[in-house]
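Morning run. Coffee first, then this:
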Amino acid sequence: MERHFLADREENGLIVRLYSLSAFYGEVFYDADTNKVLRVRAFDTTDHLVPYLAHIKFSLQ
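And here it is:
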């Protein structure tokens, strides 16, 4: 299965990384202080993409 990194953000002191994996998305919640993955979440709708919208930059040229 091929994965593509899409974006990252911070939530409650954790780094949350978003990946696209075939027909669904996955988030990895990472604690940089302890160097551990604390949670993984998979979803197949765009509802959970809202927190990433502020990080998308468009270039109009």
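The mean pLDDT is 90. Good start to the day.
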